Stage IV sporulation protein FB
Amino acid sequence: MKLFEIFGIKIKINYTLIPIWIISIYYQYFFELIIVMMIIMIHELAHSFASAYYGIEVLEIELFPFGGVARTESFFEVDPFKEIIISIVGPSSNYIMLLLAIIIQSYIKLQIDLIYFFIFTNLTIGLFNMLPILPLDGGRILRAYINSKVGFKKATMIMIKISKILSLLLFFTSIHLGIRREEYFFLCGIAIYLFIKANKEKEVIGYTFIYHVVMKKKQLLDKGFMEVKHLTALESIHINKVFHEFSSNKYHFITVINPKGKVLGNLSESEILDANIKYNNKLTLGELIEVLEK
Ligand SMILES: [Zn+2]
């Protein structure tokens, strides 16, 4: 449901929020709800502005009961450094709001509960989003970092494992806390949600990977140059295996050797990518060199 538009970005609310709105009005927590929504919206706008700065257009922001999602024309950034910046500005906006509130409060010396609520909510959202769990900001930052070392696919696989373990940990911790104070039980729901979301990242690896490769070409054409990563691989390795070792911000060259260590030839990333499309993953590196030599 569309609420309004700001800087050309549609602000929508998810329908699951409607019953929560009604309950909060009934229990007279309406202002608290408005504050939470506003904080989440500013957090998402911060991501959106950072994306726009890097030329990724943000189409809409949808607000959910426990957070928001900024939908961009492309769903993530290819360059790990840019992805880290885009991710980090969200929680940073919470820390800035928190500091401003503390400063203003210390000058005006108002003892308003809503100000404490504002500070507490910013602290919670700012810290929670920095958990290294996908798809939270902290998870994206860590994935971008690992991506720059071992490639996107491996980084995502590692992050899925970390995210599942941490969300299980969060689940059991919230049960443990919930036994004493039942408010903590709502954390169980969030933990389950995060576990499911982390598992879903597996499905997107396939097409996000192709997307990465296409975006890399664009990045190379825009910039005109790119850092190189050199790999050495055995002739018996299939091209799709090497393909998944590629980092998204580097251009790769592969030296192909036989088991005795003799160099059979060199392949560029573009040659591997073309072969991947043309021969549908079936070739080994040794076979590809033979095909190209013909
Ligand atoms: Zn965020």
About this structure: The CA atoms of residues 143 and 159 lie 6 Å apart. The chain has ten helices and seven strands. The pocket of zinc ion is lined by residues 43, 47, 90, 129, 137 (CB under 6 Å). The two ends are 59 Å apart (CA to CA).
